[in-house]
Amino acid sequence: MALFLAAAMAGCQQAPDPAPVHAGPAIAAIEAAATDWPSYGGQASSTKYSALDQINRETVKHLRRAWTWHSGEVSFGSETVDFTVSEMTPIYANARLYGCTPFGRAVAIDPATGREVWSFDPRKPRTGNMYHENYCRGVAYWQAESAEVRLRPCGKRILYAAQNAVLHALDADTGRVCTSFGAGGRVDLAALDYKGEGKPATTSPPAVWGNVVALGAAVQDNMYRNSLDGIVRGFDIVTGRELWSWNPIPDDLSGVTGAANAWAPLSVDAKRGWLFLPTGSASWDTLGVNRLDRIPDANAVVALDMRTGRKVWSYQTVHHDLWDYDLPAAPTLATIDHAGRPTEAVIQGTKTGNVFVLDRLTGQPLFPVKERPMPRSDMPGERAALTQPMPVLPKPVTSQSLKTADGWGLFGFDSAACRTRLGVLRNEGLFTPPSIKGSLLHPSFLGGTNWGGIAYDPTTGLAVLNSSNLAASVRLVPRAQYDEKRDKRPGVSVYEMQGSPYVMLSEVLMSPLGAPCNPPPWGQLTAIDMKTGQTRWQVPFGRLKLSTGLLTPTSWGAPNQGGPIVTRGGLVFIGASLDSVFRAYDIQTGRQVWYAAVPAPATATPMTFRHTDGRQYIVVSAGGHGGFGTQLSDALVAFALP
Question: Can you tell me the distance from the alpha carbon of 233 to that of 263, in angstroms, rounded to the nearest whole number?
């Protein structure tokens, strides 16, 4: 198993600018009763919950494939086309499914038949993309508050940012460009000032509230000392005019460091008009000698006022990040039962396996968080944080330590090789700083949890998330000692760290027979009771085909990418695994109650909706992941009851 390491259409007349939308029934029904899927995370709050129950614990056994739509876009990687990755979650709005393809097309699909209704191709470059991938995670939907305006051209819109950081506005009915938005229907983010080196990319759909569309950007990790500042921007949905920008890098450090960007999906508190961001590390990711001053909005959950971009509060989950422990997923905005009363909360999964539960109004932890002492750095000029915030509850969803004696393998010689690899690394547990010798990173840079994030069920109070459990190494090689022939080998990611004295090497630690060097389970699905903070259940998740051809047992679990959804039918649906299987679990027990083979690994988050034909559909992208070396497809698959 290879692991991933590292032409315009005719214009519409512009609809008049409707009055801004504020709180009330115009923007949000009670989310516990939500049956549509108008946003990437189900609702703007990213709960990934549906109140539909036509498909439930009793009927799920009858679930069958209803239709399959093919994008026609598959690439195993070449000089002219980067490989394709399937990470798209469609939305259901305006009685249609809307999504996007790896090559950047926006599409509308008939929800009952899978027939393509319209398509818009922005002609995004197919090679030279960040991380050499072609993918698109999703789109956003907006409609004017006035029913009269909604009937006019561009009164309903699809907004999405192609991978090359161009924000587009399209008529949701026809797919035609809304020409009065920005410059001819588009806003080129790369043409805006990001205060640093490199170019922005977009890896997640934008967020919408009222007449504001907001989005962050991705930057190239561990490339530049002064990467692009992680600026988040808000634009007028009707005109494309920039309304505000917010920079996580303090003014006195701009030009000294950069990044701390929000590349993952965003969430919106529709009642307050607050935007919730998951930010990442400042640059360089694994060397902080240039950023010893505090950067409180890096690696933080940040709440902004979506009207103005003003920061309301932030809470930092990692101090002085040296491990690429970005916050990788949308904050989940849920109302939980806490201390005997309904409490508006923010639930944030992390790459470390920690789960933070914060008060949505103040950003303060609802369960205790302790600042624990951490190892010191031995790199010249570096000052690792003396402590890191560690939640007392919930408990971590994955392992956070690995001893040399725990080195694992299929046979004796295999495990001995892993113990040898572990034994030469600096290893003082979670947050062991990177070193010239090489340091253990456990969990790895893949997580813990990743961009799939958390689903919350308001009927049970359970938060459900999937996690990977892998160990990796990080080594800072003095530039004069770097040998490309020796150091740049299969499985090793090389990061230039321009302007530093070092080249960074990282790799997932694998045995000679292709098994992870840490003991299984290598992937799990976990349910946490938000009333108590305790783990309700945890089960191994996914299966792995090793380089020996062995398909691992279910009890070993497997690394995964994507996330779960939950329904009032008492079910958790999840693809995410690398074994081309789509699964359903009983949310009360974690017992698997249904599965179906799909054309390729469904490394995306599914969604569900009830169409006008009265049927509930479950839809998932099943195109595989070129970075993981899986089987690839171009399929979007829908399931329904007969």
Answer: 12
Q: How far apart are CA 317 and CA 350, in angstroms?
A: 8
Residue 324 is a catalytic residue: yes
483 burial class (0-12, 13-18, 19+ CB within 10 angstroms)? exposed
Sign of the CA dihedral running 205, 64, 590, 462 = positive
Contacts of 144-149 with CB under 8 Å at 24 or more apart are 144/15, 144/18, 145/18, 145/19, 145/21, 145/26, 146/18, 149/15, 149/16, 149/18
Q: Looking at this protein, which amino acid is placed at residue 473?
A: S
d(CA 52, CA 610): 7
HEC readout, 183-200: CCCEEEHHHCCCCCECCC
Indicate the DSSP class of residue 571.
E
Q: Which two tokens stand for residue 525?
A: 């699905």
> Which residue among the candidates 297, 324, 414, 457 is catalytic per the annotation?
324
Ordered mean pLDDT values, 10 residues apiece, the chain (642 residues): 33 34 38 86 97 98 98 95 96 98 97 98 92 94 93 96 95 98 97 93 96 96 95 98 98 95 97 97 97 97 98 98 97 95 96 98 98 98 98 98 96 96 97 98 94 96 97 97 91 93 96 94 98 98 87 95 97 96 98 98 97 97 92 97 98
CA 364 to mean position of chain CA atoms: 23
Report the predicted TM-score, pTM, of the whole model to 2 decimal places: 0.94
Cα 600 to chain centroid, rounded: 20
> Could you tell me the CA-to-CA distances from 485 to 6, 196, 222 in Å, in that order?
18, 31, 21
Question: Burial of 33 by CB count in 10 Å (0-12 exposed, 13-18 middle, 19+ buried)?
Answer: exposed
Rounded to the nearest 10 degrees, how much is the dihedral formed by the CA atoms of 276, 204, 279, 191? -110
Sign of CA dihedral 335, 339, 340, 341: negative
Q: Among 189, 186, 171, 344, which residue's Cα sits nearest to residue 263?
A: 189
Widest CA span of the chain, in angstroms? 72
Specify whether the CB–CB gap between 287 and 495 falls below 8 A: no
The answer to whether the CB of 283 falls within 8 A of the CB of 274 is no
Q: Which amino acid is at 314?
A: S
Question: Residue 601 contacts by C-beta under 8 Å, 6 or more apart in sequence?
Answer: 86, 575, 577, 578, 579, 580, 622, 624, 625, 628, 630, 631
3-state secondary structure of 360: coil
Residue of 601, 641, 586 whose CA lies nearest to 59: 641
Q: What percent of the chain has pLDDT over 90?
A: 88
Nearest to 281 by CA among 332, 254, 319: 319
Q: Which runs of consecutive H residues, i.e. helices, occur in 424-492?
A: 484-487
Q: How far apart are the first and last CA of the chain?
A: 37
Q: What phi and psi values does residue 98 have, to the nearest 5 degrees?
A: -125, 140
